[in-house]
Amino acid sequence: MTTPPNLNDLVGILLRFRLHQFAVTTDIEKAFLNVGLETQDRDVTRFFWFDTPTDPSTPLSTYRFKSVLFGATSSPFILNSVLQKHLRENRCEYTDTLMNDLYVDNILSSFPTESALLKYFDTSRDLFTRAGFNLRSWASNSQLLRDRANSHNVLDKDELIKVLGLRWNTCNDTLTFAKPEYTDIEDTQYQWKYCPTDSNPADMLSRGVTATKFLELDLWMKGPEWLTDKSNWPQWKNKESHILSTTIEQGQSTSEPQQKIRSYEGISKIMDIQRYSSYQKLLRITAYMYRFINNCRNNDKLTGNLSVNEIQTASTSWIRDSQLHSPCDSSDNTITSTRKAKTDAKEKIKSWIQPFRKT
């Protein structure tokens, strides 16, 4: 039986993480192992182990976990429930911030001033210490907080900090996506083949299956149907990823960065227009997305209400997307054909925004 993880929304955490000027991250040391299991609940965590691990001929002994084990489906839910209960029963100035910015054993927050940041550091560490947890690996774009964390031996000194799948350079305060590293398999003697997950018998055990159901699985007993027919062996299909690249340029005559959008496949490849109830809402969400990208890459953060330029940038990106997928025929240079092309373009844009038109 799996339990739905009562975890905070990742998008909201990342947005709040860059909401204010001074950002900070920390994580709970050995979080799962610090949550104990009741004696009557430990039997469900039984496992066998050799009396002498280096000698497989020795008898097997039965062990039980005394704490929440790392890797169990329910572990994130149990940890989150324990932390939320502790925070509710020991309220302080930053209780709501901690409850909203917590994701499993990671906490990401931001504050408008360094004084609030330093107070948050002291208060949160004291609060979690009372529950037997240690907040370690502190990282921030504030030098004052880095010095404070270093004096307590809890500073993360890595050049790039891991932030929920992203990489954060605290020195220049920029966020980047982790670049996947692929290693090509080169072997002159063998030719490697690809096996999909749903056809891999080993994946059944790793995902978990009952003993009764396991005995009924033809995939484990007989293997995939295509195994004996080489002509039907699956082929690896490399799915091209659609990337939206945004270049931020700062002009000398204005304090607001000007954005140039370069869309390789169009913004519609990463945003589903059908999910938004109105055209204006679509533009606002798009503008906030570009603001998030800007705040991740630049020291000059955009805050407050959306500006006219930001809304216009979002509108331009969607118009370009529409033009990219519905190009106009401008081969004829006559005045008549030019007017017709403009009319056709308007009609195509009107049809594109049809989901938002009032009836």
Automatic annotation (TrEMBL):
InterPro entries: DNA/RNA_pol_sf, Rev_trsase/Diguanyl_cyclase, RT_dom. Residues 18-135 form the Reverse transcriptase domain. This is Reverse transcriptase domain-containing protein. It comes from Mytilus galloprovincialis.
